[in-house]
Predict the structure of Pyridoxal phosphate homeostasis protein.
Amino acid sequence: MAEERQQEIVQNIQDVRAAIATVPHKENARLVAVSKLKPVEDLQYAYDAGQRHFGENYVQELVEKSAKMPQDIAWHFIGHLQSNKCKLVAAIPNLFVVETIDSIKKADAMNKACVSCERAKPLRVFVQVNTSREEAKGGVAPEQCSDVCKHIVQHCPQLELGGLMTIGMFGRDPSIDNPDFLCLADCKKTADEVLGKGSDLELSMGMSADYLQALQAGATNVRVGTTIFGARPKKP
Ligand SMILES: *Cc1c(COP(=O)(O)O)cnc(C)c1O
């Protein structure tokens, strides 16, 4: 059983990597294995297959898994972030990035949390943009994106602005250009201009259903869960 599960995950990762390698100029794109609600055994199989970037959505789960797993993992927090949980997240030494900064207030809270955790280096963050303008989705409105970016660069010395992130609408027509990806690329263009000094923000977009399309649209970071680990149980 365990061996079959391992083979399945290893094969899935190889398939995703091979697919990414077919996209021109995207051989250096970062694959984040989204492992929420999956047991550490599954993550360990992926790790043994060379996977180092993992994404988690729930603070408690991230805290527990990061304590159990090897310390050279680069963790991505990709879930909704509550201000009162910032300290727990900031205290994880091998946290690579918080992808879900969705307001100036949240940036300030994260900055403050980093001061008290005495992180060795500024913490990398992405600004989440609600490109589909869905009420249920987190993120700043596209027209507010550069203001939040500017605030982080100018007023949050414990943070290092690394890029922009979107989840986008589910079930977009794959035969046409994805409006969410176009919107995030547009936000990057504006923000890079506003920030100046050779700013080149990353784009975190694309999940199991559309990561290849996202790479073609300029993604540097794709977040793939189901295609690697299979369907998830419902969140309790
Ligand atoms: C769950 C999740 C993913 C992975 O989605 P899949 O469709 O399973 O690949 C990616 N990004 C975010 C923010 C998520 O919450």
Residues 2-21 form the longest helix (20 residues).
